[in-house]
Design goal:
- The complex is a heterotrimer.
- By secondary structure, chain A is an all-alpha fold.
- Chain A has a single domain (3-214), classed as MetI-like (MetI-like fold).
- Chain A is built from eight helices and no strands.
- Chain B starts with a strand and ends with a helix.
- Chain B has helices spanning 44-51, 76-80, 98-108, 114-127, 143-155, 173-188, 200-206, 224-229, 234-248, and strands at residues 4-15, 18-29, 33-37, 59-64, 67-68, 83-86, 161-165, 193-196, 209-214, 217-222.
- Chain C has a single domain, classed as MetI-like fold, CATH 1.10.3720.
- Chain C is built from eight helices and no strands.
- Chain C has helices at residues 14-47, 52-67, 70-85, 91-116, 120-128, 133-163, 175-185, 193-223.
- The radius of gyration of chain C is 22 Å and the shape is elongated.
- The termini of chain C are far apart.
- Classes of the chains: A mainly alpha, B alpha/beta, C mainly alpha.
- Chains in contact: A-B, A-C.
- Chain A binds chain C through residues 58-59, 61-68, 70-71, 74-80, 152, 156-160, 162-163, 170, 173-174, 177, 183-184, 186-187, 190-191, 194-195, 198-199, 202, and chain C through 2-5, 67-72, 75-76, 79-80, 82-83, 158, 162-166, 168-169, 176, 179, 183, 191-192, 194-199, 201-202, 205-206, 209-210, 213.
């Protein structure tokens, strides 16, 4: 392997990694917001909206991100909805991740016994206060491992961003392979950078999972 | 005679086709301790849930100092502040420490200051012998301790009436006593309480009035001495016999 | 109504071509799943063995495959093979190799999870009857794990189908690539084709995956 070559193009990878992580985080934040809203709609069994949410969840979970991105990036402008590549990446990731986050929160909510709600109500808390102070905090901690799994999943999914010509890690690697035929070096750096992004998240995820599984509140 | 605090008239509660409470009348006066007993499935727990507005009712009315309690109504949270309820399964909030469990509603609902609420919470905890547990989490407590915290949590809202739904039924035998003692003390202080229980000796000791419910209605009621020593109805006799047999065993 | 570019689909053989592209993607995922399931079962059994070396090797394999984006794996095999063996392997073959490696890891982990969830006394009572290790797995453990595994495997197929959309990026002609070609070819006559055609691709994937998701959910409920 050619170390000089790798050092020379290191800044390119750094830039690409920052872009990947930035759009990834934006997308994850959108996914979380969408997820919370959808989960609350489903948990609260709000008519009509609940139907729309389940259609969204099925569409989002049963189609690939790449196709979602192509539709948003190339298709939607034809009916007057234009986005730039970055916004499109974050939106696409949010559209995909929203359903996964929603399912994680919903299953967390469902583990909280209804009588917890009743005991909170019996203290005179209003329904939104019950949700805010009693149910959500418990549900979120139950859902934490699933959250982390989703975050890793979504960060991995960012690898398709180059399809809408974002200069991410994949784009950079492919570019260097095409230009200089330094295949081994380019691929090696690609793997290393993805490990730098994903390994810490994966380790944190595992610690949290162990916490939730073996302990609980007040450990 | 003390004033009427809770007035239930012709209460009907049905689940689908199954009638659980069928035209029940009950008036509880301020400062009175009413113990409700009856075979399982007779509707006694449902009665408490109706009083707290946790269940929609199909007929009749429940009024607390003249205000009607209606499931799902706008002023229900306000009314519930006046009704403390303690559940069989404690239902402390596992993500909050003991002190936060107790002060959550006083601070968020009654808008009292955190400091004042905590002060009172600690005072109440001390009375039930749990002051040193204030910073602990529910999972670190025994069942009896949890239930005492649950009672304090309800008390801290200054309720006008307290509902106890089989609060010792889930406890190990050696922990029953510590919870019952707390309740006896509350009764002595003149609190209005409605207690559903299977502890007959306790019922006799604590009650001003005993109500025997079967098949969704009051079959017999009276002073505890009279009721336990010479029940008038055949069904109450049968019911009490079962318990005597069990204590002989 | 705005021009949604849907008319392109009914021009010539365009719809047939799209379906052909979908089939190309489905074929890759089906072959990979068919290979992954037996290999994954084998891996799962290996992973619960006590030998340290086997455990370490399978663990590293699993962790690496699962933490890397599938597209990175595709790049490694597709571009790397040319470098390593001096000869290109086709995009299709690269895809099958990668998806099989990935599917085997996923399946292996599912199998491992299913095996360790079988109570220990099942092994002990089987051993007490005089069954050999291999016989224990064959007659006692595997039949019990299969029910739990089937819904998970169906889910794996769905994930595999969605993942095949990536093969476009290493030049395999599948449904999205065909869509690009159709849009490009009709740029003058149907400038809005991108909307209708990509929407169609989106729905085609949905039609391919949704029934499988429903089936998996149904089986989970039935056998869960």
């Amino acid at each position: 392997m050619n170390i000089d070559f790798m050092l020379e193009y290191l800044p390119l990878y750094e830039k690409a990694a920052v872009l990947t992580v930035r759009i990834g985080c934006e997308g994850i934040l959108i996914a979380l917001s969408v997820g919370v809203i959808c989960a609350l709609i489903q948990y609260g069994k709000i008519p009509v909206l609940r139907r729309i949410v389940s259609v969204y969840i099925e569409l989002s979970r049963n189609t690939p991100l790449l196709v979602q991105l192509f539709f948003i990036y190339y298709g939607l402008p034809k009916i007057g909805i234009s986005t730039n590549a970055e916004v499109c990446g974050a939106l696409g990731l949010g559209f995909l991740g929203g359903s996964y986050m929603s399912e994680a929160i919903r299953s967390g909510l469902e583990t909280i016994e209804p009588i917890q709600t009743e005991s909170a109500l019996s203290l005179g808390l209003k329904p939104y206060q019950v949700m805010r102070y009693v149910i959500l905090p418990q549900a979120v901690s139950v859902s934490m491992p699933a959250f982390m799994a989703n975050i890793i999943f979504l960060l991995k999914e960012t690898s398709v961003f180059s399809a809408i010509s974002l200069m991410d890690l994949m784009f950079t690697a492919k570019d260097l392979i095409g230009l200089y035929y330094k295949t081994t070096e380019s691929l090696f750096m690609l793997v290393v950078f993805y490990l730098i992004i994903l390994l810490p998240v994966s380790i944190i995820g595992r610690i949290i999972e162990r916490r939730v599984r073996y302990a609980g509140f007040g450990a | 005679m003390a004033s009427e605090l809770l007035k239930i008239e012709q209460l009907v509660k049905r689940y689908d086709e199954h009638t659980v409470i069928n035209g029940l009348d009950l008036t509880v006066h301020s400062g009175e301790v009413v113990v409700v007993i009856g075979p399982s499935g007779c509707g006694k727990s449902t009665l408490l849930r109706c009083i707290n507005g946790l269940e929609p009712i199909q007929g009749g009315s429940i009024k607390l100092s003249g205000d009607e309690i209606i499931h799902g109504s706008k002023n229900l949270p306000a009314l519930r502040q006046k009704i403390g309820m303690v559940f069989q399964s404690y239902e402390l909030f596992p993500h909050l420490s003991v002190i936060d469990n107790i002060t959550l509603a006083p601070v968020k609902v009654q808008k009292r200051s955190k400091g004042e609420a905590e002060e009172e919470a600690l005072r109440l905890l001390e009375r039930v012998g749990l002051k040193d547990k204030a910073k602990q989490y529910p999972r670190q407590l025994s069942g009896g301790q949890k239930q005492r915290v649950a009672i304090v949590r309800a008390l801290c809202m200054h309720p006008e009436v307290m509902l106890f739904d089989e609060v010792t039924a889930a406890l190990d035998p050696e922990m029953v006593r510590e919870v019952l003692d707390v309740m006896l003390n509350l009764a002595k202080q003149g609190r209005t309480m409605i207690i559903v229980t299977h502890e007959m000796q306790f019922a006799e000791a604590v009650a001003d009035r005993v109500i025997f419910i079967d098949k969704g209605n009051i079959i017999e009621e009276g002073r505890p001495k009279e009721f336990f020593n010479s029940p008038k109805t055949e069904r109450a006799k049968q019911f009490l016999n079962i318990f005597e047999f069990e204590s002989v065993k | 109504m705005p021009d949604l570019g849907l008319e392109v689909l009914f021009k010539g053989k365009n719809m047939i071509r799209l379906l052909g592209g979908l089939w190309a993607a489905l074929k890759i995922s089906l072959i990979s799943v068919a290979l992954s399931i037996p290999l994954g079962i084998l891996l799962g059994i290996l992973m619960v063995r006590k030998e340290v070396v086997i455990r370490a090797v399978t663990r590293i394999y699993l962790e690496f495959i699962r933490i890397m984006p599938q597209l990175v794996l595709l790049f490694i095999v597709f571009f790397g093979s040319a470098r390593a063996f001096g000869s290109d392997i086709s995009g299709e073959l690269s895809s099958v190799i990668v998806f099989t490696l990935w599917g085997t890891a996923e399946m292996g982990d599912l199998v491992r999870g299913a095996i360790i969830s079988i109570p220990k006394h099942q092994y002990e009572s089987s051993a007490a009857l005089g069954l050999k290790n291999s016989q224990t797995y064959f007659y006692i453990i595997i039949p019990q794990t299969v029910r739990r595994l089937i819904p998970l495997s169906v889910n794996l197929i769905t994930r595999m189908i969605k993942t095949t959309s990536l093969v476009l990026m290493i030049g395999v002609v599948e449904v999205t690539k065909v869509a690009q070609q159709i849009i490009e070819a009709n740029r003058m006559t149907s400038p809005n084709a991108a909307f209708g055609v990509y929407l169609t691709v989106f729905l085609l994937y949905f039609i391919a995956c949704w029934p499988l998701s429903l089936l998996a959910r149904h089986l989970e409920r039935k056998w869960g």
